[in-house]
Amino acid sequence: MLSSLEKRGGPYASTSAGVGGLPTNVPDTIICAIFLVMYIGFAVTNMTILQKNKRRGHKFNLSGMLFGFCMARITTLTLRIVWANRPHNVRLGIAANIFVNAGILLVYIINLILAQRILRAKQPHIGWHPIPRKGSKVFYWLLPAALIMVITAIVVMFYTLDPVTRADCRDVQLTAITYLFFFTCLPLLHIIPAVALPRSKQEETFGEGSMLAKIVILTASTCLCILVSGFKMGSLYRPLRPVSNPAWYHGKPAFYVFNFVLEIMILCLLTFSRIDKRFWIPNGSTKPGDYSGMGKESGDESSERTIAATAEPKAQA
């Protein structure tokens, strides 16, 4: 005979400890409000950069993606504040958890796009080769697939009490989060051959500033993203613990530091280093020699522009 909970059909409050725990007015509302102001500031800054560049014919769609990331985080923090005031609303908890995992993917994409530009400039024979070009497209499209897997698994877990189904959902989450961690490492796999291999005779330059500065900025951003993704993967791989006995990585300090503090550092790095100037390339760059060409329009490569449009269409409106 079914219990009253099973008859209700969910959603059911989780019996396992989760990263961040159940939010409360103190301290979650105050902390979230502080981060909310920061993300709003970065959203305004990046949209201002995007619009100013557009007005002078300098299209750089990645600034729009940074704006989209900030808007996703504004939504995340708003949901968490509302959840803190309605802690027994399980549906709010589901939505908040989904947005925590979703927003940062835009930064992962930005890092890989910038890494491709460095590799194509430093080692054109590798960067422009059909195999890495087509392979990168596969990796791009697997990213939203992994996100869909995570979202589906989270929702299903909240709407079932069947232990087998929950175990299957956990396996799906582990598979998806492992791929996301792998994706965050891809920029390093572009940077290493770009700097380790002998200097190419076809080496190009693009944007403002030195190539060394570009490599340092991207490496720092990538390492921070690896830290964010690695924490999420590591905490998920650990054995489940009951709500009454959480581990240190389930606590609020770990949640805010390994998510929002590191993300603010990434935003500071990418925004204030002016990647819109350093990583700009001529419009329609599709082959060796195009980066150093005198293009009349500025923008992103066609394939990368497609990815940016898919990830954040409103940012390019």
Structural notes for this entry:
Residues 286-317 are annotated as: Disordered. InterPro entries: DUF3112. Keywords: Membrane, Transmembrane, Transmembrane helix. This protein is mainly α and 317 residues long. The chain contains 12 helices and 2 strands. It has a single domain, classed as Rhopdopsin 7-helix transmembrane proteins (Up-down Bundle). Helices cover 70% and strands 1% of the residues. It has a two-stranded antiparallel sheet. The longest helix has 34 residues, at 163-196.
Keywords:
disordered C terminus; about 325 residues; 12 helices; globular; two-stranded antiparallel ribbon; mainly alpha; Rhopdopsin 7-helix transmembrane proteins; disordered N terminus
Structural class: mainly alpha
> What is the CATH topology descriptor?
Rhopdopsin 7-helix transmembrane proteins
Major sheet: 2 strands, antiparallel
Our estimate of the beta-strand percent is under 5%
Distance linking N and C termini: 55 Å
Helical percentage? 55-70%
Q: Can you write the helix and strand succession as a string?
A: HHHHHHHHHHHEEH
CATH architecture: Up-down Bundle
Pfam families: DUF3112
Keywords: Membrane, Transmembrane, Transmembrane helix
Transmembrane segments: 30-50, 62-82, 94-114, 138-159, 179-199, 211-233, 253-272
Region (Disordered): 286-317
